[in-house]
Write a structure and sequence with these properties.
The complex is a heterodimer of chains A (100) and B (411). With 100 residues, chain A is α+β, with helices and mostly antiparallel strands. Helix content of chain A is 28%, strand content 18%. A three-stranded mixed sheet of chain A has the order 1-2-3, with helices on one face. In chain A, strand 2, helix 2 and strand 3 form a beta-alpha-beta unit. The longest helix of chain A is centred in the middle third of the chain and has 13 residues. Chain B is an all-alpha fold and 411 residues long. In chain B, helix 1 packs antiparallel against helix 12 and helix 6 packs parallel to helix 8. Classes of the chains: A alpha+beta (100), B mainly alpha (411). Chains A and B meet through helix 2 of A and helix 2, helix 6 and helix 10 of B.
C-alpha cells in the first residue's frame, strides 16, 4: 500500500526536540513496511535507552503513520540491536553536530 | 492509540520548587561569603559551617532531590513508589536548612531542631527511593549506584540524628567522630556516588556518546564505596591508618571516574560547546585540581589547602555540574508539560530555544571567575580577594536565578 520511502517521509515529520533533527535523518528508523490491508510496521531505535521521551517518541511515530490515508493499524517495534551510533545518521546531521 | 505514561516525567509543579529554591540558595550562599573573614578561616569555624550547610543543603541537596524525582524513573526504568512524597520533602528541607544556618550563625540552640527537620526530609526521600528500587527486578551497575548512594545517605542521616541529639544534650556521644562519619557518608557516599552513577546515563545521553567502557565506573564505585566504609570505621575505631587509606582510595576512585568522563567526552557525537558542556568542563577541571591539591595536603597538612579543596569540590565541581544540568533538565520538564501535547498540531520550540543565552553565559563567566578568585583567596588568606570573588559570584548567581525563572516561565 505504501513503500518504505513513503512511510519514512511520513515519519520524518517527527523531530527529536533535544537535537532538533527528525528521526529519519538521525538514522533512528531502521525499517518500515505496510501491507495491502493498511497494516504498517515500523522498526526503530532511540539514541539511548534512558531517553525520558521514550514513550512519547514512539507515539509520535505511530501517529505520523496513522495520518496516511488507508492506514488501519500501526505497530512500532522498538529495538536496541543494532545499537544506534552517529554513523547511522545522515551526513548533514553528522556535520551539524560536529562529528563528521 | 495508547496513553502516555507519566511515570518518567512527574508534574513540573512538583519539581519546580526544588529548582527555584535551589537557585535562590545559590544566590544566598554567594552573598553569605561577604560575611566570612578570609584571614581567620578554619574548617570548624561556625561561619564556614554555616556556608557549607547553606550551599550543600539549600542548593546541592535541594536540586539533587528535585532532579531525582525525574531522573530516578529514567535510571531505574520503573515509576516512583510515591512521587507525591516530594511535595513534603522541599518544605522540610527548606525549613531545616534555614534553622541550621541560623543555628551556626547566631542561635546554636536552633541547630538540633534544624538538624532533625532536615533529617526527616532526607529520610522521606531515602525511603521513597528504597521503595522505588524494590520495584526493580534486576539491578544493573547504574541502578546499583543509586542503591549504594542512598544506603550511605540513610546511614549518614542516622549518624546526623545521633549528632543532633548529642548537641541537644539528650545523649552523650563524641560529636567530632560522628561529624567525620556524617560528612563522609553524605558527601562522598551520597553526593559523589550519585554523581558517578547518574553521569554515565546523562553525559552519553546529552553528548550522544557510544562505545565507551563501563568498567571504570565499576572500579570507581567499588573504590569510593570502600573508601566511605574505611573512613566511617576509622571514626569509631580511632585507627588513623583506616582513615588515610580511605582518603587515598577516594582520590584514586575519583581519578578513575574522571578517566571515564574523559572517555565519554571523547566518544561524543555532539561536538558543540554549549552552556551545558562548558559548565561540565569547568566542573571536572575543579575536580581534578581539588584532587591534586588533596595529594599536596597529604604531604603538607596546611589547613588552607583543605579549605580550598572543599571550596573547589563543593562550588566548583558539584556547583557547576548541577548548574550545567539545570540547563538541560528544566527545559525538558517545561517542554514536556507545556509543549509536548502540541506536537503535530503547531510549531513547538526545541529545547535549546528555551535556554537564555545571555544570562546563562553571564552566569558561567562570573561564577567561574568568582570560584577561581575565592579559591586563591582561601589559599592566600586574602580577605580583599575573597570579597572580590564573592562579588563575581553574586552577579553570576543573579544571572543564574534569572535563567532559571526564564526557563520555567518559557511560553
Amino acid at each position: 500500500m505504501y513503500t518504505k520511502e513513503e512511510l519514512f517521509k511520513a515519519i520524518s515529520t517527527v523531530i527529536d526536540p533535544e537535537v532538533g533533527f527528525n528521526l529519519v535523518e538521525m538514522g533512528l528508523i531502521y525499517d518500515a513496511e505496510c501491507d495491502e490491508e493498511g497494516k504498517a510496521k515500523v522498526t526503530m531505535t532511540l539514541s539511548t535507552k534512558a531517553c525520558p521521551l521514550h514513550q512519547m517518541i514512539v507515539q509520535w511515530v505511530k501517529e505520523s503513520v496513522e495520518k496516511l490515508d488507508g492506514i488501519q493499524e500501526v505497530e512500532v517495534d522498538l529495538v536496541w540491536e543494532p545499537e544506534w551510533n552517529i554513523t547511522m545518521a545522515d551526513d548533514h546531521v553528522k556535520k551539524a553536530l560536529g562529528g563528521g | 492509540m495508547f496513553s502516555i505514561s507519566q511515570d518518567f516525567a512527574p508534574p513540573f509543579k512538583l519539581i519546580s520548587p526544588f529548582f527555584i529554591l535551589g537557585s535562590l540558595f545559590y544566590l544566598f550562599s554567594s552573598c553569605y561569603i561577604f560575611f566570612i573573614d578570609a584571614s581567620s578561616l578554619t574548617t570548624l569555624d561556625t561561619g564556614v559551617l554555616g556556608f557549607v550547610h547553606l550551599f550543600l543543603l539549600g542548593f546541592v541537596m535541594m536540586v539533587i532531590f528535585g532532579a531525582m524525582a525525574q531522573l530516578v524513573p529514567v535510571v531505574l526504568e520503573v515509576g516512583h513508589f510515591g512521587v507525591e512524597l516530594f511535595y513534603a520533602i522541599w518544605p522540610l528541607l527548606l525549613i531545616g536548612t534555614l534553622l541550621m544556618v541560623a543555628g551556626f550563625v547566631a542561635l546554636p540552640a536552633l541547630l538540633p531542631y534544624g538538624g532533625v527537620v532536615v533529617l526527616i526530609s532526607m529520610m522521606i526521600f531515602v525511603m521513597e527511593i528504597f521503595l522505588t528500587i524494590s520495584k526493580v527486578k534486576k539491578l544493573n551497575m547504574v541502578m546499583s549506584s543509586v542503591l549504594i548512594s542512598n544506603t550511605f545517605l540513610f546511614f549518614g542521616i542516622i549518624v546526623g540524628l545521633v549528632m543532633a541529639l548529642a548537641y541537644a544534650g539528650t545523649i552523650d556521644a563524641d560529636i567530632a567522630s560522628l561529624l567525620r562519619a556524617h560528612v563522609y557518608l553524605v558527601i562522598a557516599g551520597y553526593i559523589s556516588v550519585t554523581i558517578m552513577g547518574l553521569s554515565v546515563v546523562l553525559l552519553p545521553m546529552f553528548g550522544l556518546s557510544h562505545g565507551f567502557s563501563m568498567k571504570p565506573l565499576e572500579v570507581a564505585l567499588y573504590g569510593m564505596g570502600s573508601s566511605v566504609v574505611l573512613v566511617v570505621l576509622s571514626s569509631f575505631l580511632k585507627f588513623a591508618f583506616l582513615e588515610y587509606a580511605g582518603y587515598a582510595l577516594a582520590i584514586v576512585s575519583l581519578f578513575i571516574y574522571f578517566y571515564l568522563v574523559l572517555s565519554i567526552y571523547k566518544t561524543r557525537a555532539r561536538k558543540e560547546n554549549d552552556i551545558y558542556v562548558v559548565s561540565l568542563i569547568f566542573s571536572y577541571i575543579s575536580l581534578v585540581i581539588s584532587l591534586l591539591m588533596g595529594i599536596v595536603y597529604f604531604i603538607t597538612s596546611y589547613e588552607p589547602i583543605l579549605l580550598a579543596i572543599g571550596w573547589l569540590m563543593f562550588v566548583g565541581y558539584f556547583g557547576f555540574l548541577i548548574t550545567g544540568h539545570i540547563y538541560k533538565i528544566i527545559p525538558f520538564l517545561v517542554w514536556f508539560e507545556r509543549f509536548s501535547p502540541l506536537v503535530g498540531k503547531q510549531k513547538v520550540p526545541m529545547l535549546v530555544d528555551m535556554v537564555p543565552i545571555k544570562s546563562s553565559s553571564a552566569q558561567f563567566i562570573f561564577c567561574a571567575a568568582g570560584v577561581s578568585l575565592v579559591c586563591v583567596a582561601i589559599l592566600l588568606q586574602n580577605d580583599m580577594l575573597l570579597k572580590a570573588g564573592a562579588s563575581f559570584l553574586v552577579v553570576g548567581a543573579v544571572a543564574f536565578f534569572r535563567s532559571v525563572l526564564y526557563m520555567i516561565n518559557f511560553k
